[in-house]
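Lecture 7 notes: from sequence to structure.

We start with a single chain of 129 residues. Read the sequence below before looking at the structure.
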Amino acid sequence: MNHRLLFIAAISGFIAVALGAFGAHGLKNIASAEMVSIFKLAVEYQFYHTFALVSLAFAAQWLSTKWLNWSAGFFIVGILLFSGSLYLYALTQAKWIGPITPMGGLCLLIAWALFAIAAWRRPINTDQI
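Now the structure, written as tokens:
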């Protein structure tokens, strides 16, 4: 198991819960319904990919750490760019942030592809489970 990656996933999950609570309780008083919806989307995607990081941390027992480390890096950058840009946009409505979100999405897609490559190149040995 990759303990450092599990730690990063735990911190990401903590931040997602905190931001989700802020979005549900504090943001609705200062932002439009559309911006709250964008903020919620950011929280959802952060959670999905936090769970992916947890999966990578445990998959390190069976799969190539080279591919998993690259995947983890792209997941982390993807979370920061995708969810981070949506959080920032929902709070500031600054139009220049818009092009950052698809770059984060691309990083997330690459991360999933790298995870798939890791699984394909060295399938999980069920005898070790």
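Residues 65-92 form the longest helix (28 residues). Keep this in mind for problem set 3.
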